[in-house]
């Protein structure tokens, strides 16, 4: 079956309200965004020890 025909394009036009048609570039960009979002991030380091001041004994 040929996919780039007026009949198929008409069917896709009718489906636009139900589905999202994405190109290969759009798919790769979406997958890259998901991968970046799920990527490991460096740990947060919090120091809870009191700061040393010059007035400390």
TrEMBL record:
The lineage of its organism: Eukaryota, Viridiplantae, Streptophyta, Embryophyta, Tracheophyta. It comes from the Eukaryota. This is Uncharacterized protein.
